[in-house]
Amino acid sequence: MLRHFLFIAALFGAMQLHAADVQTDYDSNADLSQVHYYQWQNQSDAIDEKFNTLTDDAVKQALSFSLDRQLAMASDKIPADVLVRYYLKPVKKLVDDRPRLGVGVGGFGSNVGGGVSFNFPLGGNDLDQQAHIVVDFLDPKTKNLLWRGSIVTGMSSTSAQTNQKQLQKATDEILKKFPPR
């Protein structure tokens, strides 16, 4: 019994670790430990049309809050060490939550049995969308990619407040991986 409980606990733990799986890639020749100042790169295609412009503002606000804990905003007197750009794209839903009906009949020898099952979603999950957030750091002179971090996070189609919290958690998780160690 204890083995079964430990197995289930380990399985849930592994699922939680996978939920916040940040992917990173970087230019191994770049000295990213010397990055102290950032500037936003102008872009027009950062947010997929599935998400509204308020989501764009929410991503930038969450990312700014996370960046400001590690780096400072560049100014006229202090040039940027990196340009920052971001993308928010929807992730196709892989879970089919349509109602289902199952019927089974079987037998062995003179015994026969059958069963019917119903499966229907009850809802209750505020996070009904998935979004892939990508954050890039670029060399300000060459515009070459120096570092990239990304994560898939849940989003709500109805609650901007929930989205702000999710975006803040996601950008914090991404920037925990910068600079690469």
Q: Into which percent range does the helicity of residues fall?
A: 25-40%
Based on DSSP secondary structure assignment, what is the total number of beta strands? Answer: 8
Second CATH tier, the architecture of the domain at 33-93 and 126-181: 2-Layer Sandwich
**What overall geometry do the principal axes of the alpha carbons give?**
elongated
Report what the structure shows.
- With 181 residues, this protein is α/β, with parallel strands linked by helices.
- It has a domain at 33-93 and 126-181: 2-Layer Sandwich (Double Stranded RNA Binding Domain), CATH 3.30.160.670.
- It has three helices and eight strands; from the N terminus they run H-E-E-H-E-E-E-E-E-E-H.
- The chain has helices at residues 2-19, 53-68, 160-175; strands at residues 23-26, 37-40, 72-73, 82-91, 100-108, 111-119, 129-138, 145-155.
- Strands 1-8-7-4-2-3 form a six-stranded mixed beta sheet, with helices on one face. A two-stranded antiparallel sheet has the order 5-6.
- A hairpin with a 2-residue loop joins strand 5 (100-108) and strand 6 (111-119).
- Helix 2 (53-68) packs parallel to helix 3.
- The longest helix is centred in the first third of the chain and has 18 residues, at 2-19.
- The two termini are 41 Å apart.
- The model is unreliable at 14-19 (pLDDT under 50).
Please give the structural blueprint.
Blueprint lengths: L1 H18 L3 E4 L10 E4 L12 H16 L3 E2 L8 E10 L8 E9 L2 E9 L9 E10 L6 E11 L4 H16 L6
Parallel strand pairs: 2-3, 2-4
Antiparallel strand pairs: 1-8, 4-7, 5-6, 7-8
Helix pairs in contact: 2-3
